[in-house]
C-alpha cells in the first residue's frame, strides 16, 4: 500500500455537545464542526450526527469517500454492542468506533507512551504504552469520577456537614457554605436534585478558597490528590514516567502532587481530534 494512500483517511471526534471531523484526501484537508451526541444516552442521535459529518466532508471534497478508512472517537461508545451498532449505521466500508477517552489520551501524549489524568466535570485515568491504551474510571459521579469537578462539589457539601457535626476540622469557608445552603436540611435537599454538572459548579469555589489557604478546601483537594495518585498507581505509574494532567482542574491539582509526580509532568500536546487523526493514520496502515 502506497504512503499516499495511507494519508487518505477520515478522523471524527464526536462528544456529547460538538462533533469535529477531518478528511485528508489527495494532499488536501477538509474540516467539519457540528452538533454531537452521547452514544450511550442518545444512540440514534449520535449516529445522525456522524452521518451529517461524513456527508459534509463528502460535499466539501466533492469526492466519493465511502471506501476511505475512518476512525470515530465517540462519547458514550462504552462497549462492543454500541460500537458495532454505530459502525453499521455509517455509510462507510472501513470504519472503527471507539470510546472518546482513547483519542483524548493519544492526543494529549501525541501518540507517545505515558499516563493521563483527565480531570474535568468527570474524570478518568489512562496509560498509553506501545500504541495500546488502557483506561480506568469514567463511570460517572454515582460510581466513580474520583477527584473530578463533580466529586469536589459533592465533597464540599459533605465536608460542610461533617464540620458542623464536629467530625472534621471546621473552617470559615465550610461554615459559609453550610449557611449559604440553609443548614443541614438545605444541603440535603439541594444535593438530592443536583446533577454532576451542578456539583461541578462548586469546584471553582473550592480552588479559590484553596488559594486563600482555607483548611476545608485544602482537605478536599488533598483527598482528591490521593485518589489521583492511587489511580495512577493502579495503572502502573512509576516515578519518571511521563504524566499529563488534562481538563479544567489540572492546574488546581498540580501543586498537590508529590515531587516525583510534578517532575514527571508533561503538557498536553493535543486534543481529542488530534488523537483521532493519529488513530485514523494507524487504522489506515492496519496498526490500530
List the keywords.
single chain; 288 residues; alpha/beta; Nucleotidyltransferase, domain 5; 4-stranded mixed β-sheet; ATPase_BadF
- Alpha-beta classification: alpha/beta
CATH class of the largest domain: Alpha Beta
Quote the distance from N terminus to C terminus: 16 Å
Spans of at least 5 consecutive residues with low confidence: none
User: Helix amount, in percent?
Assistant: 40-55%
How many strands appear in the DSSP assignment?
A: 9
Q: Beta-strand level of the residues, as a percent range?
A: 15-25%
Any idea what the radius of gyration is? 21 Å
| Helix/strand order, N-terminal first | HEEEHEHEHEEEHHHHHHEHHH
The CATH architecture term of the largest domain is 2-Layer Sandwich
Mean pLDDT: 93
Shape: elongated
Strand order of the largest sheet: 3-2-1-4-5
Q: How many DSSP H or I helices?
A: 13
CATH T-level fold name of the largest domain: Nucleotidyltransferase, domain 5
Major pleated sheet? 5 strands, mixed
Task: Look at the structure and name the CATH superfamily of the largest domain.
Answer: ATPase, nucleotide binding domain
How many discrete domains? 2
Amino acid at each position: 500500500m502506497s504512503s499516499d494512500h495511507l494519508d487518505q483517511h477520515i478522523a471524527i471526534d464526536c462528544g456529547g455537545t460538538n462533533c469535529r471531523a477531518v478528511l485528508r484526501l489527495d494532499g488536501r484537508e477538509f474540516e467539519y464542526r457540528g452538533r454531537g451526541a452521547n452514544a450511550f444516552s442518545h444512540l440514534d442521535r449520535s449516529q445522525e450526527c456522524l452521518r451529517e459529518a461524513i456527508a459534509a466532508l463528502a460535499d466539501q471534497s466533492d469526492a466519493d469517500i465511502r471506501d476511505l478508512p475512518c476512525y470515530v472517537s465517540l462519547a458514550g461508545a462504552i462497549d462492543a454492542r454500541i460500537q458495532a451498532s454505530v459502525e453499521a449505521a455509517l455509510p462507510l466500508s472501513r470504519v472503527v468506533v471507539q470510546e472518546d477517552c482513547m483519542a483524548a489520551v493519544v492526543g494529549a501524549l501525541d501518540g507517545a507512551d505515558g499516563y493521563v489524568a483527565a480531570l474535568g466535570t468527570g474524570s478518568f485515568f489512562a496509560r498509553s504504552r506501545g500504541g495500546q491504551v488502557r483506561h480506568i474510571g469514567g463511570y460517572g459521579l454515582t460510581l466513580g469520577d474520583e477527584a473530578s469537578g463533580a466529586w469536589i462539589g459533592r465533597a464540599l457539601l459533605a465536608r460542610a456537614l461533617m464540620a458542623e457535626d464536629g467530625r472534621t476540622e471546621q473552617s470559615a469557608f465550610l461554615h459559609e457554605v453550610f449557611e449559604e445552603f440553609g443548614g443541614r436540611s438545605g444541603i440535603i435537599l439541594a444535593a438530592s436534585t443536583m446533577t454532576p454538572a451542578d456539583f461541578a459548579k462548586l469546584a471553582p469555589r473550592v480552588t479559590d478558597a484553596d488559594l486563600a489557604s482555607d483548611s476545608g478546601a485544602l482537605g478536599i483537594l488533598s483527598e482528591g490528590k490521593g485518589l489521583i495518585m492511587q489511580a495512577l498507581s493502579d495503572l502502573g505509574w512509576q516515578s519518571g514516567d511521563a504524566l499529563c494532567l488534562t481538563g479544567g482542574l489540572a492546574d488546581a491539582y498540580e501543586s498537590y502532587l508529590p515531587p516525583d509526580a510534578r517532575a514527571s509532568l508533561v503538557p498536553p500536546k493535543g486534543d481529542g481530534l488530534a488523537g483521532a487523526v493519529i488513530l485514523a493514520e494507524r487504522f489506515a496502515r492496519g496498526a490500530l
